[in-house]
Amino acid sequence: MSIEALRKHRIDPSQGDPHVTAHPPHTPPFRDPHLSFAKRIDDLLSRLTLDEKIGFLHQFVPAVERLGIAAFRTGQEALHGVAWMGPATVFPQAVGLGATWNTDLVRRVGEAVSKEVRAMRARDDRVGLNIWAPTVNLLRHPLWGRNEEGYSEDPKLTSAIATAYTHGLRGDHPTYWRTAPVLKHWLAHNNETDRATSSSSVRPRVLHEYDLRAFRETVEAGAVAGVMPAYNLVNGRPNHVSPYLREHLRAWTQEELLVCSDAGAPSNLVDHEHYFDTHEEATAASLRAGVDSFTDHGTDSSQIIARIQGALDQGLLTEAEIDTAVRRQLSVRFRLGEFDPEHDPHADVRDFDTPAHRALAQEAAEQAIVLLRNDGVLPLAPDTRLAVVGLLADECKLDWYSGTLIHRSTPLEGLYERFGAERVEFAEGVDRVRLKTSAGTFLHVLAAENASENDEDATRGAQGALDPALLAGRTDLPPLTTDATGTEFALIDWDEGVLTLRAPDGRYLSVAEDGYLRASADQPGGWVVQETFRLEPHGSGHLLRHLGTGRHVTVAADGVKVAAENDGNDGNAETFTLIIAERGEDAVTRVTSEADVVLVVAGNDPHINGRETEDRASLRLPAHQERLLRAARAANPRTVLALVSAYPYAVDTSDLAAALWTAHGGQAAGTALARVLAGDVSPAGRLPQTWYESDADLPGLLDYDVIGSRQTYLYFEGTPLFPFGHGLSYTSFSYGDLDVRIDDGTAHVSFTITNTGDVTADEVAQLYTRAIDPALPRPRRELVAHRRVTLAPGAEEELSFEAPLRAFEFWDVAQGRWRREPGPYELLAGASSEDIRLRTTVLLDGEPAAPRPVLQRSLEGADFDEGSGVEIVDRTRTAGDAVTAGDGGHGELVYRVLRLRRRRHRVR
Questions:
Q1: Rounded (10°) CA dihedral 462, 466, 472, 476
Q2: Which end of the chain is more exposed for a tag (fewer CB within 10 A), N or C?
Q3: Which run of H or E residues covers position 835?
Q4: Is the per-residue pLDDT at 743 higher than 50?
Q5: What gap in Å lies between CA 710 and CA 452, rounded to an integer?
Q6: Beta strands 386-389 and 424-427, pairing class
């Protein structure tokens, strides 16, 4: 039957397709597309030996040649484009996609990414179809190192964007999936500090109203193949043995969800968390809890196989429990069309780096840009003389989950193209330095001879794919030496004492496995960054410590290298004198004073001071970049700040002419920024999380109680630097005609938006609700719907939303269920969480509060109304919560309105 017919009639081969001719009688039933998926999986399971089924439980599943079954692996990273497998279209970071507030756009990005996965797999079978994306962890705390990977601090917005991306990844065929997305990271995961051993204390209201919601609404939307548990513990219990997988996740859908462990997490249960005494116990407990695929020890499956076999031998596991996990994996493989290649509509997809994908990358980068403030200097006039300064002005940064760039556009390149190179002056603003040795010579970079900078073999990682760290590991280039004049390096101080050194040819100093320093890296990168150093005062000079190895730099006759491990780290350390040839701010002043407008491009490198394995220390902009910004502002009051970063900063923009923010925008970042600055595109991105004024506004990184500590826009009671949902435009919009109708368990809300300016632009309309007089703490306001619309000057559009009345509910800890409190609620429409243009009040019925039925339900310790100084821990390894005092040794819990005795009834 044709694909078109399948779509038209929505025939589901999982129930059997009468139009598909059955295979000949000798064909095994699992190969017969006439049968349902369930029957085919039953047949295949019955043919697999126990040893073969055990082999299915590791990430790298071997082929079963006797049955003609190919090898399979879980896990293809594709957070904002195909990652780690070489060249691919690179879209904006996930937090940038969140900033678009555009579900249609994000769905199209997901479609493009999944098509590139299919195209790349056609030429390299190591590219997997089981996608480990998106990340739906909520951006609760802006110092989280992986802030770039999430969409928003708000569960509603996060689930909307994640649902769009998963639908794009899945494809729209009723049966066969283009790729199979797995959500990361289950659950309450917002810290890299001690991430493998820390426990997130999450009380029931926070669990249900906040952390579970983004996962639940995305899973219920029907395009998710599974989830990945996080490294951390929740309430004292590791996520990889969490009963929530069974109690919540699997209750949300009838699909056979595949749960894939995070890398190394199965071993962490014993080696780091010490939650179990033996790996056999830990593996069995994970499998019984719902983990179906173990990502551990790389491609070597022998240890996981041995642990599972040991668990079977000890009676900790049954073959039936193994069958359950294998069935879930096979369900995904059947949905991916692996066993029906002749019917798979995605088998011949070859869309890769197409003009449409390139245009989409640019569109996404443009829509992600947020205009934070503007005193009228933007958009720039065509004849503007522009000074461009800053460490990121001529950079197109990648992160750990990026593919390799095919196309590249920096802000400087975009502005040259848009305004003409003759109208743009550039000063990077780095400090130019030389490093003098104790012998009076200087560090020197030798010219590379007979070393091809395009040698692809030098850039390949352990699995043969192009490494996003690019040239960092090369040993075919000459190591640094010393001479009488030395090389002038660009010293970039990224704050917290972390710096990089770059040679005049643009290569960063890096350390390879042989320990020698070379100018060999295009960018800092890699799992362990080998391009970062620290200058440590020592006597009248400095020692230079290489942060990747933790060892000091030495100078020897055969070249410059890090000290050997057995040198006591300091034995041969060289003492350097730092000679400053030019301060960065001096270069900035030189090019800015005569410009009409100064553009300072600041932000972060996604591999330094905030990334996977490393949280940020502060919201502050690095001191080096603050100096450049002050120098530019002092030289020219018409200074515009463009922040290009993976997370918010606390930076004072009050004396700037304008400020913008964008996440690292992928391959088209520079072109997009230039078009917005020039007014070719009116900015309409919106902040997906609160920007706080200072570190003092932040809770502790490990404080997961968003209600008690008043976190995120939902509960924050201070004045933010910029609020959730904020973003300005080059035009103006008016709101009117708010109408609300309650019908059939739904609030039907409509209002009109009119473009009252003279520029065609997008507006992001946001609908919030709040309980007016709640009996317990509720959100100050809570997003229930949003829509991004394009309006020409003078155009008006009526927007309609449907908010189910369950959106007004909260988790009642007294009853252990959702409840809507009767009373007045406000509905608020506007352009941000603080820019409310329309409001009205509705009176909703509901269920009044009732005393806790202690005798019927008992009193769970974690079901407190208010608490301080306490931590929730596991009651047993498999179920239940308990409460204990926190680090201070004492705490306080409040339980309201208890019913401690049975009612007496008088009988007449």
A1: 80
A2: C
A3: none
A4: yes
A5: 55
A6: parallel
**Whole-Å CA distances, 708 to 67, 711, 721:** 57, 8, 22
Of the CA atoms within 13 Å of residue 100, those in its CB half-sphere come to: 30
Domain assignments of the chain as residue spans, ordered by start: 69-335, 365-423+586-688, 438-573, 731-850, 854-899
What is the token pair recorded at 731? 């035009």
Short-list 539, 445, 541, 555, CA closest to 490? 445
User: Alpha-carbon dihedral of residues 171, 175, 180, 181, nearest 10 degrees?
Assistant: 60
> Would residue 878 be called left, alpha or beta, if left means φ above 0 and alpha means ψ between -120 and 50 degrees?
alpha
The three-state secondary structure class of 80 is: coil
306: its two tokens: 């041995």
Higher pLDDT residue, 678 or 5? 678
pLDDT score recorded for residue 65: 97
Q: Is 70 exceeded by the pLDDT of residue 12? A: no
CATH topology of domain 365-423+586-688: Rossmann fold (3.40.50)
Contact residues for 208 (Cβ-Cβ < 8 A; gap 6+): 811, 818
Q: Is the dihedral of CA 276, 280, 286, 288 positive or negative?
A: negative
Please check the confidence at residue 3 and state whether its pLDDT lies above 50: no
* Reported CATH class of domain 731-850: mainly beta
The fold for domain 438-573 equals Trefoil (Acidic Fibroblast Growth Factor, subunit A) (2.80.10)
Q: In Å, how far are 230, 665, 684, 688 from 362, measured between CA atoms? A: 32, 9, 14, 20
pLDDT-derived band at 479 (thresholds 50, 70, 90) equals very high
195 pLDDT above the threshold of 80: yes
User: What mean pLDDT is reported for the chain?
Assistant: 93
Would you please indicate which residues are annotated as catalytic (active-site) residues?
262
Q: Please state which of the ranges 472-486, 664-678, 790-804 shows the lowest mean pLDDT.
A: 472-486
| Residue 260 per-residue DSSP state | B
Q: What single string gives the DSSP state of each residue in 619-654?
A: SSPPHHHHHHHHHHHHH-S-EEEEEE-SS------T
Position 521 scores a pLDDT of 94
CA distance 14 to 339: 12
Question: Which H or E run contains 503?
Answer: none
Element (H, E) at 485: none
pLDDT at residue 706 in the model: 98
* pLDDT score of 853: 85
CA distances, 255 to each of 251, 290, 328, 398, 839 (Å): 10, 14, 9, 35, 40
Same fold, 438-573 and 731-850: no
Task: Measure Cα distances from 905 to 494, 851, 902, 908 in Å.
Answer: 73, 18, 9, 10
Q: Is the pLDDT score of 470 beyond 80? A: no
pLDDT for 879-904, tens place per residue?
999 999 988 788 999 988 777 665 55
3-state class of 609 per DSSP? coil
Q: 742-745: which pairs have CB atoms within 8 A and are 24 or more residues apart? A: 742/805, 742/842, 742/844, 745/804, 745/805, 745/806
Q: Which CATH class is domain 69-335?
A: alpha beta
* Spatial CA neighbour of 55 closest among 462, 258, 329: 329
Tell me how far apart the alpha carbons of residues 385 and 631 are, in angstroms, rounded to a whole number. Answer: 18
